[in-house]
Amino acid sequence: MRYEGVVYRPPSEAGSLLIQATIGCPHNKCTFCAMYKGSKFRLRSVEEIKEDLLAAREYYGEYIESLFFPDGNTIIMKTDQLVEIFTYAKSLFPHLKRITVYGSARYVNVKKPEEIIRLREAGLTRVHTGMESGDNEVLKNISKGTTAEEIISAGQKLKNAGIELSEYYLVGIGGAKLSEQHAINSAKVLSEFSPDFIRLRTFVPVPNTPLYEDYTKGEFQLLSPHEALKEIRLLIEHLDCQGSTVLSDHVSNYWNVQGRLPEDKDKMLKEIGQALTIDERKFRSPHISRL
């Protein structure tokens, strides 16, 4: 098995076999992200990927149940290539229960609905999507390369095909100025397709990114712990999802907010209210230097 650069995966893929299918990110322009800045995007050949899958089978045996294909936006590969890779993986690992990839709305929407169905039939079970926000002003500010309308289209396409969707909401990415519309409009977008998972991440400025420079110059105002919790409360208040699970599975978050919608909405709101009674000095600093 061969890996190039730093390989990133969601926390929920901690137990998955990682086989690198792409190098870097084809967009790589988000102002808050430094993950793939040292990598030039390229697709690995199907032959190389299959060689690594075979090496994994020889090393680990056939008892692999979860498989994740990094890097960023592996969904961009041609559908025929992905189908070949998924089919081969299933032949090597007969106990495989889950195949997952990263895929932003922009690249999901390149594929036709029938292509998405083919991917599901070949074994793709979940797509991790970093929507970050459902507010068009925020999306433009962070150079996300997509719109709220495109996020809805991609979400509906994946859900209609029977593929699990894990959406990431970035708390505080609108700054103090746009916090309210970021939360409310994101809730509206998510409610249009009820992703299986809504994963909360709290924005922390990362050095060597444009948004970090804005932050250091005082042009971007971070949310305090209480302000971040109030934004999450606003998001949850406006969510009208059916069967979505909210998770705070990341170290960046101030509080473990989790539950299933709609039945756990009141419970989550009550827990946030309790967190807001805690002195802000008890929470971690919003700044990266102390995280």
How would you summarize what this structure contains?
The chain has helices at 46-60, 79-92, 105-108, 113-122, 136-141, 148-160, 175-191, 210-216, 225-238, 265-275; strands at residues 17-18, 22-23, 42-43, 66-69, 98-102, 126-132, 164-171, 197-202, 245-247, 259-260. It has 291 residues and is of the alpha/beta class. The two termini are 33 Å apart.
Task: Outline the fold blueprint.
Layout: E1 17-18, E2 22-23, E3 42-43, H1 46-60, E4 66-69, H2 79-92, E5 98-102, H3 105-108, H4 113-122, E6 126-132, H5 136-141, H6 148-160, E7 164-171, H7 175-191, E8 197-202, H8 210-216, H9 225-238, E9 245-247, E10 259-260, H10 265-275
Parallel strand pairs: 1-4, 4-5, 5-6, 6-7, 7-8, 8-9
Antiparallel strand pairs: 2-3, 9-10
Helix pairs in contact: 1-2, 2-4, 7-9, 9-10
Keywords for this structure?
38% helix, alpha/beta, TIM Barrel, 10 strands
Can you walk me through this structure?
The relative contact order is 0.11. The strands form 2 sheets. The protein has an 8-stranded mixed sheet with strand order 1-4-5-6-7-8-9-10. It has one domain: Aldolase class I (TIM Barrel, Alpha-Beta Barrel). It is built from 10 helices and 10 strands. The protein has helices spanning about 45-60, 80-90, 105-110, 115-120, 135-140, 150-160, 175-190, 210-215, 225-240, 265-275; strands at about 15-20, 20-25, 40-45, 65-70, 100, 125-130, 165-170, 195-200, 245, 260. The mean pLDDT is about 95. The longest helix has 17 residues, at about 175-190. With about 290 residues, it is an alpha/beta fold. Helix 1 (about 45-60) runs parallel beside helix 2, helix 2 packs parallel to helix 4 (about 115-120) and helix 7 (about 175-190) runs parallel beside helix 9 (about 225-240). About 40% of the residues lie in helices and about 15% in strands.
